[in-house]
Amino acid sequence: MVPLSQALERLKIKRLVLQIHDPAFPSATDEDVGRGSPNSSGAAEFIRFLQQRGFNGIQFGPQGQTARSTPCPYDGRLFPHDFRSIVLNPLVEDPYWRGILSRETLEGIVQRCPPGNYRTHHEYAWDEVSAALDEAFACFRARGDSAAEVNVDFAQFCESNESWLSKDDRGSVNEQAAFPQFALDRQRQDLRASFPDLSFYGDLQIGMTRDDAQEFASLFHPDYLMGAPPSRTNPEGQPWGYAVFHPEQIELGNAQAFLKRRVERMLSGFDGVRIDHPHGLVCPWVYRRDVQPSHVAVRSGSRLHESPAVAEHSELAAYAIATAEQIDASCEPYGEAWVKDLTDDQVRRYSVLIDVVLDCVRKAGGDLTSDVACEVLSTLPYPLRRVMEHHGLGRFRVVQKAKLDSPEDVYRIEQACPNDWIMMGNHDTPPIWMLARGWCDGRRGQDWGEYLADRLIVPEANRAEFVRRVASDPGELVHSLFAAILASNAQHVSVFFTDLLGMSGFYNSPGVVNDTNWTLRVPPDFAAQYEQKCREGRALNVARCAQAAVEAVERRG
Q1: Does 511 score more than 80 pLDDT?
Q2: Architecture, CATH, for domain 206-394
Q3: Cα gap 466→228, rounded to integer Å
Q4: Residue 368: how many CB atoms within 10 A of its CB?
C-alpha cells in the first residue's frame, strides 16, 4: 500500500482542506465554554489528527462578530472578530497574560456550561465569555505596567488597527472594546506558529450586517440591494438584503480601498481566502430596495453591470459594462449566456474588485491558483467566467449535486479542471452519509455504482460486484465517491468536517431558521469515535480512498 503522503503526491493534490467553522471545533473538558475555538487545546489535538490523515489546510468560516442570538457566521461584522473564539485558559495560565483572569471564574464557566457537547451554546458563551473578558480587562488595566510585553503589544495593536477599531466619545480607540480583538489576534498568531505546515483559509463573505451597511453607507447604492438570482439550487432567487457597492464608488477607487482594508484584516490571520459568492464582486444581481415583498423584487431584479437596455431597471444602464449589442435578449437576465461577448478591456473593468483580493493574497506571499478559492456553484455568468479565466482561478464542484443522467452537468467529477476545488459537500448541503443511506435504499445507489465504476476504471471482470457493493452499502458508496474525487483532474480537494467524521446531522439547512442550524460540533472524543466508525465503514478513511484513487489513475494510464 502506498503511504498516504506519496499517494496524494502521485494524485497531484496540492491542497487537501478540511472545512470547519470556529464554533464547531472540539474543546478539552477544562476549557469548554459552550462553543468551540480553533485556538483551544482541544482544537490543537483535532488539527494534529487532521495532519495525520493527510490534510494540509483548514478552511475556516467568516470571523466577524455576530449578534448574541445569531449563530450564522455569514451575518457577522466585517472588521471586529467574534470574541467568543477567545480561549480563556491562557488568560489564566500563560505568563504572557500575567494571570489577568482568575481560575475560579474559568472553572465556574466550565462547570455551569449547559449539557451536550455535540451542539454549541451560543448565547451562554456570549454571556459568560463577555463577562470574563470584562474581568480580564479590568485586571489588565489595574496592573498599569506600560513596560510589560503584553502592554507594549496592545498599544502597538491599537495603533496599527486604529482605522477600524471602535472609538470613544473623544475619538480615541475604545481600549475595552479593542482588548478582545487584541487577544484574538494574539491567539491566532500562536495558532499559526504551532502549525507552520498548514494553510489556513479565511472566508470573505459577500454580505454584511446592517451596522456595517450604515457605518459605510456612502460606499453603497441607496436604491438597490444584492441578492441571488433564480438558479438551479434556488429557483425563486434569494433576497439577501445586502448592500452593494455603488459603481461610482468603484470608479472613484473608494470601494477598492475599503475592500483592501477588509482583505488585509483577514490575511493578518490567514494564508489564503475563500471568496464567498464572487459574483457579488464581479456581476452582482441586484433588486430594488423599495419593492415589496422582497422575494418578488429579487425575481425581477437584474445584473448591475450588464443591464444596458432593461426597461424595468433603466437607471442601471448608466453602470453597464456590457453593451446592448453584447446582450442575448433571448436569454433570461440571470442566465449564464445573457452576456455573449466582452472585450479584454471590459473584462479588466469587471475584474477591478477581484483584483484587489488577488493583489492582497499575492503580496502576502500566496499562490493565487491554490490560495484563492472561488465559491462558484451552479451558475457561472459569462463576465465572471472571463474574469476567472483571466486569472486562472477554479470553481467549486460539489459532487453530491451531480446529475448522473446529464453528461454536461457542472458537478460531475469528470468536469473538474486542475485549478478547481472539488468536494462531496459543504456547510450548506446535506451530510454525505445521510444521502448515501438514502441512495442505497433506492435506485440512485445503482446509478452511482455505475457512474463510479466508470470514474475508477473498474475492470470489467469486477464491475458487476463493484456496482452491487456500492449500490447496497453506504460506506462503499462514500469511499468510492471520495476515491473518484481524489482521482479527478482537480488539484484542490475540500472535505466538510461532518463528512470526514461520519456525522449525519445537518450543519445548516439553507433558507430555514431553526434552533439547530450552525450549532453542530465535533465531540471531544472524536478520535475514538472516528476509529470505531472507520472499522465499521461509517467514517471517511482517507488513506483507503487515496490508495483506490492511485490504482484508478494507474489503470487510466
Answers
A1: no
A2: Alpha-Beta Barrel (3.20)
A3: 41
A4: 16
Asked if residues 409 and 397 have their Cβ atoms less than 8 Å apart, the reply is no
The predicted structure's pLDDT at residue 233: 79
Instruction: Answer whether residue 1 shows pLDDT above 80.
Output: no
Residue corresponding to grid cell 477600524: 164
Strands 220-228 and 199-204 come out as: unpaired
Q: What is the pLDDT of residue 2?
A: 82
| H helix or E strand, kind and range, residue 460 | helix 460-472
Name, in order, each residue with C-beta under 8 angstroms of 487's C-beta and a sequence gap of 6 or more. 11, 455, 456, 548, 549, 550, 552, 553, 556
Q: Which of 16-25, 224-233, 242-251 has the lowest mean pLDDT?
A: 224-233
Continuous segment of H or E residues that includes residue 159: helix 149-160
Phi, psi of 238 (to 5 degrees): -135, 115
Nearest to 138 by CA among 101, 98, 184, 181: 101
Radius of gyration of the chain (CA): 24
Q: Stretch 158-183: mean pLDDT, rounded?
A: 96
Residue 83: pLDDT band with limits 50, 70, 90: very high
**Would the pLDDT of 198 be above 80?**
yes
CB 54 within 8 A of CB 543: yes
Within 293-443, residue ranges assigned H as helices are 294-299, 344-350, 352-363, 368-371, 382-391, 432-440
Classified as helix, coil or strand, 48 is: helix
Question: At 493, is the secondary structure helix, strand, or coil?
Answer: strand
Helix, strand or coil for residue 249? helix
For 420, what's the count of Cα atoms within 13 Å in the CB-facing half-sphere? 24
119 forms beta bridges with 520
pLDDT confidence of residue 515 = 86
H or E segment to which residue 498 belongs: helix 497-501
How far is it between the farthest Cα atoms of the chain?
79
As a 3-state breakdown, the chain gives helix, strand, coil percent values, each rounded to 5, of 50, 10, 40
**What does the domain layout of the chain look like in residue ranges?**
206-394
Cell match 472553572: residue?
107
Average pLDDT along the chain: 96
Let me know: does 445 contact 453? Beta carbons within 8 Å.
Answer: no
pLDDT band at residue 490 using 50, 70 and 90 as cut-offs: very high
- Helix locations, 292-431, DSSP H: 294-299, 344-350, 352-363, 368-371, 382-391
Region 355-366 average pLDDT: 97
Which has the closest alpha carbon to 435: 486, 492, 485, 498?
498
Sign of the four-CA dihedral 167, 170, 171, 173:
negative
User: Using an 8 Å Cβ cutoff, are 483 and 548 in contact?
Assistant: yes
Q: Kindly report the pTM of this predicted structure.
A: 0.96
539: closest CA among 487, 498, 508, 483?
Answer: 498
Average pLDDT over residues 377-384: 95
Dig out the grid coordinates for 60 from the structure: 475556516
Q: Distances in Å between the alpha carbon of 9 and those of 54, 308, 372, 504, 557? A: 11, 49, 20, 30, 16
Q: Which residue has the cell 457597492?
A: 245
